[in-house]
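Record 1 of the preview.
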Amino acid sequence: MLENLKPQPLDKIIAMIGQFKADPRTEKLDLGVGVYKDVNGKTPIMRAVKAAEARLLESQQSKSYVGLLGDLTYNAAMADLILGDSVDSARIASAQTPGGTGAIHQLFEMIKMASPDAKVWISNPSWPNHEAILKHLKMPVGKYRYFDDATCDVDFDGMKADISSAAPGDIILLHGCCHNPTGANITVAQWAELADLLLAKNLIPMIDIAYQGFGEGLADDVKGLRIMAAKSPQMLIAASCSKNFGLYRDRVGVAIAIAEDAAQQDLTKATLATINRLNYSFAPDHGAAVVSIIMNDAELRADWQSELEEMRLGMLDLRVELADALRRATNSDRFDFVAQHRGMFSRLGLTVGQVETLRAQNGIYIVSDSRINIAGLPKNGMDDLAAAIAAVL
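->
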C-alpha cells in the first residue's frame, strides 16, 4: 500500500524553515515565516499568558474530556471579542478548534456538507493554505481580484466586479484584517459596501481573522467585520489565538457560524460537534483554558491588551523605519506603501529571481512572492537590509 503514495508538493514556507536552519551563515535573516518576534528575534510568551498558565496549573483538577465543542467559556469569550454586540448571541454557534487552520478546515467541511456545489471565492493573492485545503477537500474554488501590483493597494473595483460574478449561495472568503500576504486592507466604508453587495447577490461571507489587534487595534480591526455581521443573515468566521495571544504551538482557534435564528443555530452547533468528532473528537484544552482565564479576569485582560498594543505599535515603527530606509537606498518613493499597510506582512513587489538573489548573496530569506514578515525586520540593521534590496532591483 505505502509504495503507492506519491510525493506531495512541499509548502514553500515550511520548506523555507528547513532551508534557513541548514544555512551555516551567522548573518542570515528570516523574513519568511509568519511568527511574531521581538527586538531580540524571540517569540515571547506574553505576560498574561504566563500568569494564566500558573493559575491553571494550580487550579485544574482533571484532564478529562471537555466536550465536542470545546471550552464553552472560551468560545463565548472569543465570539464577544470578535463580534461584540453586533449579533444576537442566540444566533451564534461556535466550536473550539486546533488553531485557526482547524477552524477554516471545519468550516469548509460544513460548507461541503450543507451546499456541496457552492464555490468558495478567495482573494488573489491569499494565504496559500486556503486554496490548498479547498483542493484537498475537492471543493470548487474561485478567485477575486484583490491586490493592484501597480499601486500596491486594494483593487476594490476589480474585487467587486469579480464577486458580483459569483453564483447565489457561493461563499466569499475575506480577511478580517491585516491581509495575508499583502498587508493591504479594505476600509470600513468598503466593508459596508461589500456587505450590501453580498446581501443583494445572496452570497455568504466567511471571514478568516488571524491577526485581530495587530492592525489598527483590537476594536478597530473588527469594525468592518461587525458591520457585515450585523447585515448578514448567515456568516462564517474562523479565528486564531496564535498571533494575538502568542499561542502558536498550543493550537487555539474557534469556528463561528452566525445563523438566521435560534433553531438554525442549534442545528449548526450540532453539525460542528459532529465534524469535530469525525476529525479529532476534542480540541486541545490547555491554550483555550488560558485564553478563557485571561478574557474573564479584568487585570489579566488589561495586561494582555497592553502588551498586544506594544507589539502592534512596534510593528508600525518597523514599517516606517523600513520605508524610510528603502527611500534612502533607492532614492524613490517606490516602497512608501510599506508604512501604510498593516499587520505582519507586506509584499515588496520583487521577482522570484530577486528574492533568490537575496537569499543566495545575503542570507535574507523571503517568501518567493516577496512577502516579508514585518516582525522579523532587524531594527538595528534596516539600512543594510534596504541596501541589499536596492542592489537587486
